[in-house]
């Protein structure tokens, strides 16, 4: 089951330059193992529109939501 996901983005020149995910409440063998892949997809796509990682669907969806929220806050 998914926990609470937090995302902190570093925006530079109107692009996502870095992604910091707090997946400490996620199941280690699933959600936490997907962290690197999720970060890479966010940086590559420059958005929260990323594919779910197989076996970590709940975590992937939590990350999408957290990143979308962080992007929304950054554009305020």
Automatic annotation (TrEMBL):
Boundaries of every FMN-binding domain copy: 3-74
Entry GO MF terms: FMN binding
GO cellular component, one term: membrane
InterPro entries per UniProt: FMN-bd (IPR007329)
Protein name, entry field: Na(+)-translocating NADH-quinone reductase subunit C
């Amino acid at each position: 089951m998914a926990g609470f996901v937090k995302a902190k983005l570093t925006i530079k020149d109107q692009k996502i330059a870095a992604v910091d995910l707090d997946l400490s409440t996620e199941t280690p063998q699933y959600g936490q193992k997907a962290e690197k892949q999720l970060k890479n997809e966010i940086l590559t796509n420059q958005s929260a529109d990323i594919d779910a990682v197989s076996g970590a669907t709940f975590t992937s969806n939590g990350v999408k939501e957290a990143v979308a929220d962080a992007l929304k806050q950054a554009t305020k």
